[in-house]
Amino acid sequence: MNIEIANRLVELRKQKGLSQEELADKLGISRLAVSKWERAEAGPDVDNAIRLSRLYGVSLDELFGNKPDYERAIEALRLQQEAAEGAEDAPEPSSADAFGPAQEEPDGSASVPPHVPDEGGESYCGIDSLILDGVRANVRIGRSADGAVHIKTEGPEEERRRCRVSIAGSRMTVVTEQKKHLFFGFGGQTRLRIALSVPDGFGLIRAKLSGGDVAFAGARVGVIDVTTGGGDVSAERVTAETADVTTGGGDISIADSSAGRASAKTGGGDIAIVRTEVKGGLMLVTGGGDIKAGGKAGELTLRTGGGDVNAEMSASSADAKTGGGDLKLALVGAQSVIARTGGGEIGIRLAGVSGLACDAASMGGRSRLVWQGEQIASGRSITLHTGDGSARVDAKSGGGDITINAE
What we know:
Layout: H1 3-15, H2 20-27, H3 31-38, H4 46-56, H5 60-64, H6 71-88, E1 103-104, E2 110-112, E3 122-124, E4 129-136, E5 138-144, E6 149-154, H7 157-161, E7 163-168, E8 171-176, E9 182-183, E10 186-187, E11 193-199, E12 202-211, E13 214-217, E14 220-228, E15 233-236, E16 239-247, E17 252-255, E18 258-266, E19 271-286, E20 291-304, E21 309-322, E22 327-332, E23 336-341, E24 346-351, E25 357-362, E26 367-372, E27 382-386, E28 391-396
Parallel strand pairs: 4-8, 4-12, 5-11, 5-13, 12-14, 13-15, 14-16, 15-17, 16-18, 17-19, 18-19, 19-20, 20-21, 21-22, 21-23, 22-24, 23-25, 24-26, 25-27, 26-28
Antiparallel strand pairs: 1-2, 2-7, 3-6, 6-11, 7-8, 9-10
Helix pairs in contact: 2-3
């Protein structure tokens, strides 16, 4: 591209009152791409040329200055523009042309194709936050090595066609208009799959899925907020400042991850957290499944309607309750422990204790408390309640006295 066309692009951008960064946001491209156009190091492709002409309110002839060397190129671009304008009034595209060029939306954002068959998907630079809204799909989110967002969809053509992506500034939004599939009167399985790769240190991922599984692998994200109607949620090697995951009935599994604060909630599935560190509060809640937790946490909260709880954690405090299952806690450094079960057994093992307040109650099973190695501070208490079972306290002292009063 020659310098005259480059200068023309600079002039039109300034007339519109836009900086290079603001123009890049509107087009959904990097500021570097705009800079290259305006230094005559590269030229806009057909799609971006059409969008520039619409944004600036000029024809393609005016956009490129209608120089003789570009007459044939301009004519080709004009034909592309006329075809694109005609497509606006056309009926909904068939599966053959579902992933056409980006089209500017009324709010200045752009709808872009989320899939290029057999080419590994699309890549988008300058994206910092990702919103999945109403998507019914199996979603896998991983880390990108090149600092861009990559997106690829797989599955039946009809479902891929209904998946659309829009970009406004640094935010990418993924939505689907899914038809509900029914098999023998029950909700059908999710057949659309979306693979997303995000840069290391990504800002925000917020997903509200109507169904499907969500999986994270190797991602480093500021905020994770994921809700799915009934699928499983899993995470491996994930780092986040805050992480909240919720599923209507699926399982939740997290391994080799860390967060400043985290919560995991499921309507009835199991929760398994292993080799995971949470500096602040960690809350695990299930309507009726089992809970298994291992790693480190600040304040640990465990709730299940009727399943078992098994936690081996380093935590400053623990509050564990189950409607009727067994409750087993092996805690290091806990200053406060509350344990409740409606009918199961309670087993608590404490180490590294200095200043303990422990309150455990079972309405029908046995209660057992073991602590060792450290002094129980003055003014703190240990209380065991059992309905019709037995209560047992095992205490070992490194040299001091231990006094136990039982009624």
